[in-house]
Each structure stands twice: as structure tokens, then as C-alpha cells.
Amino acid sequence: MEGGAMRGMFTAGVCDVLLENGIDFDGAIGVSAGATFGCNFKSKQIGRAIRYNKRFSHNWRYCSFRSFFLTGDLYGADFCYNQLPNKLDPFDYETYLANPLKFYAVASDCHTGLPVIKELKTCDQYDLTWMRASASMPLVSHVVKIDGYELLDGGMTVSIPLKAFEDMGYEKNLVVLTQPRDFVKEPSSSLSLMKIALRKYPKIYEAMLKRHEVYNQEKSYVFEQEAAGKCFVICPEVSLGISRTEKNPEELQRVYDLGRVEMQKKLEELKVFLLEH
């Protein structure tokens, strides 16, 4: 599951249709928003991602420059990874733990400039810290320190980890993208700012310099594997046209509904793909 901040509402719609139709997998891997929203697939909480995003989109503690100036994180760490899952819209830890599906998140190692893949076995506070690392966007987030790592957004080093998942033994994969097929990533417009902000971490800055090249290569690989019958791709037909930090509940619902519609259109085709040997 690709990231993309609020483009992840598309992925949430896809996941909910899969859950409603009883389609399950042996494993799942998410990058950034693909992890923070995709974890609800393992906990089988249909509608949770769109529900809490619409409910709290205007709450400054969830996502705001006020949160950034007061805490150093655009997306409030305590609100998003403690208050929200434990009190405000409870996460179903029991179902998550009981579900045999293995769930992985991808973060980026600031010192090596390489991706780090972590299995989130329980989604407890330790795992949620790894999830926060996966979604900690550069420039607007603290570096997350855990297990001897200093980590930031997984999308800085790998946005579509299909090859990594195949290398882990997953041979038949559903890939959920949040950009259309013809999207080509360009170099970041914030590189000059990142050079200053990431001056302590030259390797991760180097990764950002070539991020667009890596992304475009990853996407080409996805479509090569699709053509070879080794993966199934769900993506928007056109650009979702949504801000990464969108707060309008109607826009969030629109993109979520696009994900639902796209998955519903491809549902029977996906069933055939999954049954093929």
C-alpha cells in the first residue's frame, strides 16, 4: 500500500471493499499513510479510517501548523498514536492480534538512507511508534528514535515495496497505488529546505535527491509484474486532486468513495487472479 498522506483515503476505500467481500491475504505491507490507514485491514475495522479522518480533520491536535509549532510534528504524535487509537476511536487490538495476516510498515533510516521494514505484530505503543516513524514526513516531523534507529517517512527511500515483499516470499500480490498509471514523479521542490533540515543526515538527503528516480523505477517494476501476471494493481484512473493535508470532510469522502468504486469494478477480476495458480 503506497503512501501519500490523505491520498490514503483511496486505499482506505479499497481495503473496506476487500473486507466487506471477505478477501484476505497472508501478509500486507504499507508505507507511510499506507501503514497508518492499512493497519485497519488487519484489525478488520470497516469504515474506521474514513470515520476518524472526517471527525478529526479540523482538530488542531490531529494535523495543523499549530501542532507543528507547539510540538514539532504537523500530525500530533500523542493525539494520532495514543489518544485516537486508545480513546477517541478505539483500535481493535484483539482482532488485530488474532488475525494471522502479517502486517509490515516501512520507515527510512536517516543514517544509512535505506528502508527499514518492521513487522507490527500487536500494534501496541511500541509498534505504533514504528508506524509513526513510517509516516513522519520530512520538514514537518521529528525524527523518530527507536531500537537504535533514527527514522523518518518510509516513502523517502521506498514508496512501493513490491520487490521487497516478493523477496520476503509473497508471490502473488495486490498493489494499491494512490497515483494514476501515467503519473511520473518529478524532483521535490523542497530539496533546498531539506538540505538544511537534514544536514545531520547526509545519506537520507542523498536518498531524497534521487527519490523521484527510485519511485518511477518502482512503478515501472509494478507494471512489469502486472503484465507478467504476478501482481494485481488497483489505482485511481486520474489524479485524485486532493491535498496531502486535506481537511474538508467532503473531499476525504470523495477520495474514499473513489477507492471503493475502483475496487468494486475490479473485484471479480481480482478473485480470478487470486484463484489462479
In short:
The protein is built from 13 helices and 7 strands. The chain is of the alpha/beta class.
Write up what this structure looks like.
This protein is of the alpha/beta class and 277 residues long. Helix content is 47%, strand content 12%. The chain contains 13 helices and seven strands. Strands 1, 2, 3, 4 and 5 form a five-stranded mixed beta sheet that branches. Strands 6-7 form a two-stranded parallel ribbon. A hairpin with a 5-residue loop joins strand 2 and strand 3.
Overall structural class, as computed from helix and strand content, comes to alpha/beta
Low-confidence stretches: none
What is the percent of helical residues? 40-55%
- Average pLDDT confidence is 97
Q: Total helix count?
A: 13
Biggest β-sheet: count, sense, barrel? 5 strands, mixed
**Strand fraction band?**
5-15%
What is the β-strand count? 7
Q: What gap, in angstroms, lies between the N and C termini?
A: 23 Å
| CA-based gyration radius | 17 Å
